[in-house]
Amino acid sequence: MTHAMDVEAAHLETCAACGTPSAAAFPQPVSYVYALGSIEARFPNLGLEKEFAQVAAQADTSGLTDRELLRELLSQPANRYIARQLCWVLTIEGLDTYILLPRDPADLDLLVEALRPTPSSGDLDIVIGLRGPIATPEMCNGLVVPIVIFSQVYSFDVESLLESLPRPDEIPAAEFKRAAQELFARIAQLTDNAGSADEHRALNYLTVRYPAVYAKAAEQLARDFALTGVDVRPSPLSSTRKVADVVLAFTNRTTDFTEKFLVRVDVTEEFPFLVTKLSPYYDR
User: Fold this and answer.
1) For the chain, how many structural domains are there in total?
2) Can you tell me whether residue 72 is helix, strand or coil?
């Protein structure tokens, strides 16, 4: 059994038939994660770091940066044993937030692919999974943060995300891009958005999966309405399921009149989904 699987077995009981964490592994209510951050690979101990150095010494490394070399070597099947034993960390706003373990061993490739040979400040990794216990200090060279057993990882850059958004014909490209950048930054930089609270999972889902919020932000900007609030609250309509009401507030710069728009997101399970589309909202 690999090091990563040993660690997982030590911390999480797994279903023998399916290989996924069992309910008995979580004495507290199950907590899901839908987080936006950056994935990093770290050596959990000196021995593995020296092993990687020996492998690198036998490879053709001319012209490669350290990050290019790491990505190149970990991508090779012969070096998969090193990739399995690395410590994979998700950082959010520069802070170490989660240690990542794949639910399916084949998904180790998603972690390797997340290592950009030439990283930039706009790089973004989305991690969707199940939040487990706090890691022991031995797991990742003293790092003590929650473990996330992930089901999916998406890696792209913010610029590409915003450029892929469908733009309403009546809104100039430059205005749409400015509005989209502002909305993305506003949501991504919310205090303590670790992607584990229901409200943050709803927001992060909308950020990457619902282009209509960007179109609305651009439309309001064209009318001289600035984004002045992003509020998330439990929906009064939810009973057996957990539904979040996300309210965007836009205020006119001249009249101070505020317009609000509501979109509902179901966050009951691991994968959030849209319940109602964006529509005008009125305080009651």
Assistant:
1) 2
2) helix
Three-class secondary structure of residue 76 per DSSP? coil
Name 220's Cβ contacts closer than 8 Å, sequence gap at least 6. 179, 226, 227, 250, 259
Same domain, 88 and 205: no
Terminal-to-terminal C-alpha distance of the chain: 58
Same domain, 14 and 31: yes
Q: Are 125 and 39 in contact (CB under 8 A)?
A: yes
Could you say which of 105, 124, 157 is where a domain stops? Answer: 157
What is the per-residue DSSP string for 170-217? TS-HHHHHHHHHHHHHHHHTSTT--S-SHHHHHHHHHHHH-THHHHHH
Residue with tokens 């794949």: 102
Which CA distances in Å does 215 have to 166, 225, 263?
A: 8, 13, 13
pLDDT in tens, 119-158: 787 889 999 999 999 999 999 999 999 999 999 999 988 8
> Which two tokens mark 51?
């092993």
The model's pLDDT over 168-195, given as tens digits with 9 standing for 90+, comes to 888 888 888 888 888 888 777 776 789 9
For the whole prediction, is pTM greater than 0.70? yes
Domain of 100?
A: 3-157
Q: With H, G, I as helix, E, B as strand and everything else as coil, classify residue 64.
A: coil
- Classify 181 in phi/psi space as left (phi over 0), alpha (psi -120 to 50) or beta: alpha
Token digits for 269? 């399970």
- Indicate if 7 and 148 belong to the same structural domain: yes
Q: Residue 194 phi/psi, 5° resolution? A: -95, 5
The percent of residues in the chain predicted with pLDDT above 90, rounded, is: 59
pLDDT of residue 62 exceeding 90, the answer is no
Closest CA to 200 of 47, 31, 73: 31
